[in-house]
Specification:
By secondary structure, the chain is α+β, with helices and mostly antiparallel strands. The chain has two domains: 8-50, IHF-like DNA-binding proteins (HU Protein, Chain A, Irregular), CATH 4.10.520.10; 52-113, IHF-like DNA-binding proteins (HU Protein, Chain A, Irregular), CATH 4.10.520. It contains three helices and five strands; from the N terminus they run H-H-E-E-E-E-E-H. It has helices spanning 14-25, 29-48, 94-112, and strands at 53-55, 59-66, 69-72, 79-82, 85-92. The strands form two sheets. Strands 1-2-5 form a three-stranded antiparallel β-sheet. Helix 1 packs across helix 2.
Length: 113
């Protein structure tokens, strides 16, 4: 049987994260909200400076610069210019990949066995 996490099927919000921190660490509600807000602010500031954010045993969030290119409007098929932009890419760590593959194999056995 699959085990469900607290967030299974839900969007993880700052509120749900701060609730989880409050339960796990025992901080007050306001302290937990402040902690989560500060963590996200620090991550955002790091991205704004163009740096990679690496979360050990989870993965890295890397900013990449995309060049301007030519594409097509999918509705009309007309040529369109796609402007240069920065994108945020997630690269999972080897540990997360391994854990994901183990869980996938375990759930495949449950679903088919």
């Amino acid at each position: 049987m699959k085990s469900k996490s607290l967030w299974s099927g839900k969007t993880v919000t700052r509120e749900t994260l701060s609730d989880a921190v409050q339960r796990a660490v025992g901080l007050s509600s306001s302290e937990s909200k402040t902690l989560v807000r500060l963590v996200f602010a620090e991550i955002a500031a790091t991205w704004e400076s163009g740096e990679t954010v690496k979360l050990s045993s989870f993965g890295s969030f890397v900013l990449q610069q995309k060049k301007e290119r030519h594409g097509r409007n999918p509705k009309t098929g007309e040529p369109a210019r796609i402007s240069a932009r920065r994108i945020l890419r997630f690269k999972p760590s080897p540990n997360l990949k391994k854990q994901t593959n183990v869980l996938q194999a375990r759930y495949a056995d449950v679903d088919h066995g």
